User: What shape does this take?
Amino acid sequence: MFWYNSVNGFSHSAGKRAPTFGRRGVHMAEEVRVRFAPSPTGYLHVGGARTALFNWLWARHTGGTFILRIEDTDRKRYVPDSLDDIMASLRWLGLEWDEGPDAGGPYGPYFQSQRLEHYHRYAEELIARGAAYRCYCTPERLAQVREERRRRGLPPGYDRHCRYLPEEERARLEAEGTPSVVRLKVPETGQTVVHDLLRGEIAFDNQKLEDVVLLKSDGYPTYHLAVVVDDHLMRISHVMRADEWISSFPLHALIYRALEWEMPVFVHLPMILDPSGKGKLSKRKQRRPDGQVEENMTMVREFREAGYLPEALFNFLATLGWAYSGEQEIFSVEEAVAKFELEDIRTAPAVFSYEKLEWMNGVYIRALAPEELARRLVPFMERAGLRVTADDLLPLIPLVQERLKTLADGPAYLDFFFQDIETPSADVLVPKKMDAPRTLEALRAAREVLAEVEWNEEAIEARLRQLAGELGLKAGQLFQPIRVATTGKRVAPPLFGTLYHLGRERALERIDRALQVLEQAAVQEQ
RNA sequence: GCCCCCAUCGUCUAGAGGACUAGGAUACCACCCUUUCAAGGUGGAGACAGGGGUUCGAAUCCCCUUGGGGGCACCA
Assistant: This one.
């Protein structure tokens, strides 16, 4: 049979550094069409987002088309709100699609559940061409077979029972209306050689391949059939998908060849690994940044809620498995689009580094216009119970901008501006190498200065520095009690700006409360 | 178990046989700056998994070993 010659279709091995277009020279002018095809079985995972991102980057780089296709062929695992999350997360990252749900397009519908007639048609076509067959085995029998094979030390799989069903038996089962699936008729000998842009040729012994189910008994296709049919019908030029699909790649190739369809260029993307380096990134794994045991963040929405900027996540994900030069790693969207090349995608799996993402997020936060930072901080302040507007925040931005790692850090740095503080205890108020009486004396003096100083940052700083000298204290010894008294924190934004924006009245009021605490402590120490 | 993929500092990576005393970033450490914390500056420690080939010459090409990962559903 023609498709037993599995090596056809490839003129030469491209190898690791093959030119992107050269291999399919005839198609150099052909439009690039790529797709991201998630299944609505859960929220968008950062691994999925990275796949989407690479596809999007390639589409934008080439002036091609980015398609969103929903692979909703598993009715059992369907999660109702996952589709909304996937679309919202993609848009949050800036990965707008040209064709797909909402957008529409000439090759729709873009939900596989609405394309069943196509899968049925090509399943029949495959049967007619002798490349597939109906299988009437029950799930129970299949389970039995698997168990049996396991016991005999064989790889789990189907025993091809129905492939060799006598014709009269087949007719009888059909007449009885026995439920059936359609299976791929994999050649029993020879090899299937597939081509990956980055890895070159990969050969599989047909003997090791399985007669996978193409069409389920509920009439829905499996991934294997649906992906091939849709990629062909939607005229996909490049398939970029996760590494884990390499195993079923030969099955897909067999379907393409049986249907005599030309294959797109395949690029398998490296896996994203858990920080432990053990296995795919998943929620189950735990990380402990400071001894704390917690769940990994894996969903795009979680990063958004944790105060990461979309541009930072975008940049980080873009450099996970793709490197432009080894020198540059901060890329604007435009730069990434301009510089993205398929050849520069790595094949080795990459560990997801939360530390590096956090650093990068800080870089992007520092680069934000103050007005913009203020605007983005508002929801995080509100979530912490602080009712503020961007205008309230704006004057305070210079105090915190270079300190924030995430937007969620905002409240911890700024809450005392917007709500009263708990009066700090003496042990927090008294700096190292100081005692309560001396701290009390210093803070009293500071109160007097602050009560009459002209209320601007420069004057406050000048007078307090002068005071420190008069008291024979180091700057920190005077400033720290003031900081703690007015902010309730040991760690807070720069003092003079803080005092200025807090206002004289509130600053003095908080200092007075701290003085009471210190008075008591001073008495007790004597 | 079988099949497939992968292998440079802890991590992300540069490296296309000679430009490698292996570069950058992050994380870490020290110092500087400094009112705390950051940010910034300077410096430091830190890698070609192992073994065979090929070659005048190997991080780079080939083979083996080891290690890691993925897959083996009427899931995607």
